[in-house]
DNA sequence: TGTATTCATATTGTATACAAGGTGGTCAAT
DNA sequence: ATTGACCACCTTGTATACAATATGAATACA
């Protein structure tokens, strides 16, 4: 249901999505119509339709008579995210293993190749977006609209968080990143073999890894409370 | 994010939702802007925004340059529905038991009372809509936006299917209906007690009941294939 | 008779003008 | 000096005119 490809409207739609995912547009920041109109060369009517659609997909929130804002990420968001993600990701991977077409598997391999090379030489943005793309393809494979909407929303926030933990200057465990890449490879193998149980459990493993990275970001080791429990043993 | 309450725009939004849920607007039927404009006394700009929003929530689908249609229900839809529903419903009920506020529990009791009386003396529409309302409240209780979007979409189709199996002329097992009502009562009790395991398993039971009703609708007993397996034992 | 092409019509998409509401600042009164 | 109301400006919401695209019928051709 995205606007027709190639049009100015679609350009605006894609650009906004990307800008939000990459944190170029910050969570909670306000979006003024006139600014965006001049930026994308659209009049207000189609621009508003783009915002309406982005709102429907969870990228932005609309406030009556007070314009649009990039949807924000609070610690509440993060908690909700932690609860829903393992459930949805494992269900998606199970269905992906059941339903993937050969063309989709081929797409996924390309996406994984892009992710791998982004881990080696790419920017933070490259890493976050190629990872995002990988998981969206698994969503397409699962081919279940009811779960897809949930995955889409999870990926919005997952990718925004990833923009932080893929940051190279944190130097946080390059081992973790290559482990994530290896898990992607395993997922492809499980999907190609139609092994749904393995695919589902890989999703959980992959999620656990992400969760650890997120915890590192939310609660950096350097700031551990002297008498508190270790962050890595924090109860999920 | 619904339009501001009380406005003509909101009226149109609510009326369209209701008309789609009750099958007054048939799945797949086309929605012409000018017709709706005169019907709701809106100009095309705000009406199109209503359609955009309904599209974002899965009630309608927009086709570029070819207008909007009520989102349709095919056998593919139904299969996807069967796969996703138990997962999402049980997760929602578990979270509802964890998070429900007293005010929400009170709302739920009211909704259940309305459902019960609709089963006794109400129309098909009353039954379907009060049941819908009950489950949407459990979704609010769960308070997880990632899962909520999925529940919302499931309920659109669940309610539309229910418009068929709540039909009194089918006389299909009045016992089943009162059983559904009793399960609602049990759910309320589990939520009020904060018993999340029980709430989750009740969701699965409740779903199994719904599924049987849906199967009866999709594959009526009178048309069983002579050599086929029994519909009630159809593998999920 | 069947098929392709073209044009008239209807419907959707976009721009712009106007209306309504919200924000922030100034000024007055206590 | 602080607080309140008022007013101007700015942003969003709606209506309408115009442009672009699809649809279907009529016609010409094979």
- Please give the oligomerization state of what you see: homodimer
- CATH fold-level name of the largest domain in chain A: Four Helix Bundle (Hemerythrin (Met), subunit A)
The most extensive interface between chains reads: A-B, 35 and 35 residues
CATH class assignment of the largest domain in chain A: Mainly Alpha
Identify the CATH homologous superfamily of the largest domain in chain A. GntR ligand-binding domain-like
Give the N-terminus to C-terminus distance of chain A in angstroms: 36 Å
Q: For the largest beta sheet of chain A, what order do the strands appear in spatially?
A: 1-3-2
Major sheet size, sense and barrel closure of chain A: 3 strands, antiparallel
Categorize the overall geometry of chain A: globular
Poorly predicted runs of chain A are 223-236
Proportion in helices of chain A: 55-70%
Radius of gyration of chain A: 19 Å
Instruction: Kindly report the average pLDDT value of chain A.
Output: 89
CATH architecture label of the largest domain in chain A: Up-down Bundle
Number of E strands of chain A: 3
**Class from secondary-structure proportions of chain A:** mainly alpha
Protein name (chains A, B): Transcriptional regulator, GntR family
Pfam families (chains A, B): FCD, GntR
Domain HTH gntR-type (chains A, B): 6-73
GO molecular function (chains A, B): DNA binding; DNA-binding transcription factor activity
